[in-house]
Amino acid sequence: MGIVKVYLSVDMEGVTGLTDPEEMHAGKRGYERGCELMTADANAAIEGAFAAGATNVLVNDAHGSTKNLRIDLLDPRATLIRGPGKSQRMAQGLDASFQAACFVGYHAMAGVPHGVLNHTWMGKEIQNVYLNGEVCGETRIVAACAGFHGVPVVLVAGDEAVGEEARELLGDVETVAVKKGIDKFSAELLPPSVAQARIRAATERALNRVADFTPYAVAAPYTLGVEWNSTAIAAAVALIPGVKAAGTRHIEFTTDDFTQIMALFGLFATIGGQVACGSGPYG
Predict the structure, then answer these.
(1) Is 63 assigned a catalytic role?
(2) Which of 63, 107, 119, 250 is catalytic?
(3) Residues 11 and 158: beta-carbon distance below 8 Å
């Protein structure tokens, strides 16, 4: 059976042309143009998917407020999940009915020196994230969720550093480097027309050899560890049932259901953000 359903998770830090955090936050300088570039990168992957024979592409806005992709500019053959309150966050809508998953606009994990806008899940509050004791980034977390559903990741597009991270993790996955990091906030950029042509071609190429890919499998039980930059945030999130303190700034959660890992990140972001700005009980 050929490709029928393709899942597309789209983050923003790894989008073509973007290097400034302000370009990723509503109301800040360059944000509207950033949304247009994000949508254009998504459209390139959508075009490649349909060129490879896909009949259904589901796009999930996986960045921040999850209200960034421009539905009025999106390829009309695709559908879009948009808006907050999504229990599965970066993997919302992903299930076993898909034949392949593609990640666009992704970025390197926290601490990678040449990773453009590198971080893991939260830009300031989280130092490191661990899955079953190994430090990991968002690529591994979402790929593991896809693997839990039996879906292989076939494409990762973003900066050069996330491509290196993806290949080390997933093997012969198709990657597209739309920019080469110099430091966290600077990069050598490809023009959008060039970058998007490469995303389109790589997506089509990946889906035409989908049989070469296997889901990324992490053995259960799954233990999520988060090292926060604040003892206050760690103490606050440790109040969540099932979450335990593993140090003054480190918490852990163990489950056999990976969807609980994804849901927990949503709670972490809410609590961590409130505590960090002093509006929570531990501010």
Answers:
(1) no
(2) 119
(3) yes
Angle 72-33-193 from CA coordinates, rounded to 5°: 85
Query: Per DSSP, what are the bridge partners of residue 181?
Result: 187
Contact between residue 163 and residue 139 where contact means Cβ atoms under 8 Å apart: no
pTM of the model: 0.96
Q: With contact defined as beta carbons under 8 Å apart, do 142 and 91 qualify? A: yes
Tracing tokens 């233990």 back to the chain, one arrives at 223
Give the pair of three-digit tokens for residue 263.
């849901």
Residue 280 has pLDDT above 50, yes or no: no
Q: What is the token pair recorded at 213?
A: 């890919």
Q: What is the pLDDT of residues 139-157, one digit of tens each?
A: 999 999 999 999 999 999 9
Question: What is the percent of the chain with per-residue pLDDT over 70, rounded to a whole number?
Answer: 98
Relative to beta strand 56-61, strand 5-10 is parallel
- Exposure string over 209-225, b if 16+ CB within 10 A, otherwise e: ebeebebbebeeebebb
- Alpha-carbon distance values, 259 to 44, 144, 229, 243 (Å): 29, 10, 25, 15
d(CA 69, CA 60): 9
Task: Give pLDDT, residue 276.
Answer: 78
For residue 178, which of 165, 168, 192 has the smallest C-alpha distance? 192
pLDDT tens digits for range 106-138:
999 999 999 999 999 998 999 999 999 999 999
